Amino acid sequence: MSENKQRLEIVTPQRKVFSEEVDFLVAPGAEGELGILPNHAALITSLNIGIMRIEQDGKKFKVFVSGGFMEVRNSRVTVLATAAERTEEIDVARAEAARKRAEDRIAAKAPDLDLIRAELALQRALMRLKAASEK
Ligand code: ATP
């Protein structure tokens, strides 16, 4: 691997979403956005629902992550996420339906409403729609 590259792996329980050498990335760290260049100091952090921004050979692209963990060590960045999709993989109609379902559930205030669960589903849907619209 060249000196100014780092290997980025994004995996979910279902599949390997991404495994390539990249120049730079920005991750949605639990305590704020984290920019990672090759030879970054070792770290482990949890991730928020958000968008990873990746630069590779002058190209820029984005990957939605539904939260999880990121480890950086020896110019290797490993992201373990419950779910992740490259922007072109996002099914916009499905995300719209998920957004509506979550909004309706929150508005209906049923006595058995799990508000945190509904809000997290809403955040995932809104972030997927944002990622897809920015691609
Ligand atoms: P839904 O209610 O539509 O299932 P969700 O936010 O609950 O949405 P997740 O639990 O985050 O879904 O993801 C479950 C699986 O479905 C993952 O493999 C994820 O990549 C995939 N997935 C969910 N929503 C989309 C979407 N809009 N486009 C593409 N893949 C999706």
Automatic annotation (TrEMBL):
Highest taxon listed in the record's lineage: Bacteria
GO MF terms, alphabetically ordered: ATP binding; proton-transporting ATP synthase activity, rotational mechanism
ATP synthase F1 complex delta/epsilon subunit N-terminal domain segment(s): 7-84
Keywords, alphabetical: ATP synthesis, Cell membrane, CF(1), Coiled coil, Hydrogen ion transport, Ion transport, Membrane, Transport
Keyword Methyltransferase: no
Domain spans labelled ATP synthase epsilon subunit C-terminal: 88-132
Gene3D superfamilies linked to this entry: ATP synthase delta/epsilon subunit, C-terminal domain, F0F1 ATP synthase delta/epsilon subunit, N-terminal
Record-linked InterPro entries: ATP_F1_dsu/esu_C_sf, ATP_synth_F1_dsu/esu, ATP_synth_F1_dsu/esu_N, ATP_synth_F1_esu_C, ATPsynth_dsu/esu_N
Role according to the record: Produces ATP from ADP in the presence of a proton gradient across the membrane.
Family from the record: Belongs to the ATPase epsilon chain family.
Name used for this protein in its record: ATP synthase epsilon chain
Gene source species: Pelotomaculum propionicicum
Gene: atpC
